[in-house]
Amino acid sequence: MAMSASDGRIAVTGANGFVGRAVSRALLARGIAATALVRRGAQVEPGVETRHIDGLESITSDAFAGCDAVIHLAARVHVMGDAAAQKQSASQAQAVLEAYRAANVEGALAAAEAARRAGVTRFVLMSSIKALGESDPGRPFTEDDERRPPDAYGVSKAEAEVRLLEFGSRTGMEIVVVRPPLVYGPGVRANFLAMMNAIARGIPLPLGAIDARRSLVSVDNLASAAIECARHPAAAGRVFHVTDGEDPSVTELARRLGEHLGKPARLVPVPAGVLRGLARVAGKTAQIERLTGNLRVDSRRIRDALGWQAPQSLDEGLAATAAWFRSSR
């Protein structure tokens, strides 16, 4: 791997989160000095230097003292549930969007400015494929596709990308944008954990007829890529997609999870159209759309430009996730 000036200490905002803890572990494993920027009371990986902050809106350059690069993971992810989001008024929708913007756009810019004042040269923004859309345009998304975010979270991530890349052009700070699709791995929550729970308990899942293909990235692969983006000189000013390199169908993913869990998935072949109709009644439209639409992501750029290779295959990532799930029960 080519080295850059960002070979020294790396600061990690949101180091107490799912991805943040994986990034911290990966930094420690490589002997890279790591600093966690978190609120008081937050739990971080042992061995990581901790600096407490009151929030991104009031962050100062002192938080980044002695750091050469930042991996910015702190973000607002959820404001309200799916059913509640569908019923909100225009004023409520605007309030939700502003809450996302405050954390994910203004917060990221405040962190970048404080880091710049501290002499940090590289700032890696953890964005999301949602900055582009919820389903692909009939082919895998590339980094150059137009941003068409589907919801307030996606809008905030898209705006953060644009604003930070402009900030880098204006100030000379090296900005790198990383866009993962679905992230999974030991410690995963939300829908992925719910699927594992259902498979492990032998609950029938109506996914046997879903041939939609979805890109994924294991949390360890994402951590590896984020560190590469913080250190490689060719990453500056660029946007990178990160995946495991395989796009399984939803049905295939459930089957492979069942194999690793030692409990064959009970898949019922319910047509996608029927699922969407039931979802509208139950207020779960967004969740079902995520299952029944293709969301494939092209991640060749990071491999070609930086020489990055995913440390884990999809099956290795699923095996590690299943092992964690079994041991935590």
UniProtKB/TrEMBL annotation:
Chain segments annotated as coiled-coil in the UniProt record: none
Domain NAD-dependent epimerase/dehydratase: residue ranges: 10-240
Organism: Caballeronia insecticola
Protein name: NAD-dependent epimerase/dehydratase
InterPro entries tied to this protein: Epimerase_deHydtase (IPR001509), NAD(P)-bd_dom_sf (IPR036291), NAD(P)-dependent_oxidoreduct (IPR051783)
GO molecular function, one term: aldehyde dehydrogenase (NAD+) activity
Pfam families with a match to the protein in the record: Epimerase (PF01370)
GO annotations of cellular component type: cytoplasm
